[in-house]
Amino acid sequence: MAFDLSTGRTKVGLLVTDLSQDAEIGMAMNAALAYAEHYCDRRFLYAREKIQKVYDRANEAVFVDRYPIVQVHAISGASASGGWKLTHDSAGIIFGGNRGGYGYGGGGYHRNFGQTVTIDYEGGYKALPADLEYAFWKMFGSVWGDYDPSTTAAIVTGGPAIGAVKKQTIVGVGSIDYETGSAPASAAAGVAADLSAVMPGAVQATLDMYARRVA
Questions:
Q1: For residue 166, is it within any domain?
Q2: Has residue 186 got a pLDDT over 60?
Q3: Which domain holds residue 13?
Q4: Reported pTM
Q5: Kind and range of the H or E element at 120?
Q6: For residues 75 and 93, is the Cβ–Cβ distance under 8 A?
Q7: Whether residue 204 is found in the same domain as residue 132
Q8: Are 16 and 9 spatial neighbours (Cβ–Cβ below 8 Å)?
Q9: Confidence check: pLDDT of 210 > 70
Q10: Residue 37 in 3-state DSSP?
């Protein structure tokens, strides 16, 4: 599987060739991804981007938002002059020499504090780890009721909103059957504010393993 529209169609009971709800499915997927990225303070999906970071005394490296870093195409700025290497988790770039593993050698580390560095790189997962993908689809199931065309009218009129996704399966991880609860529209704001409504404990535990640990 993958975290994509084709899989999303099957998650809501459509044929993989049925494009009729792609807009709604895409919005629900984006919402689930946004919840996960906000919670973990990082970006997950693979892309190439160019960013600017300030190299300061708060960190021994410059950390990117989208990781693991797949490839660095170019680095410009004063800090690049002393050489660089990736951090052990490929989440950032260490400048300067290699003594001690933190870039203290070569003089570049100390000389370039406060300098802006431009990094052109590719990062993120081309294929999501199975547990992370499973967590994304679980969150998708939690928010789908807010986008499902068949339940939107019921939400507007104050009727119950039933989630459409009742089973999630990933090879090597397993499957869970569940039913989402119903609630009157007047409670929607309170439910949306409750993180556990979107991220059950198992999902939060999974995301905790991928959360950014540095500033």
A1: yes
A2: no
A3: 5-43+128-208
A4: 0.72
A5: strand 115-123
A6: yes
A7: yes
A8: yes
A9: yes
A10: helix
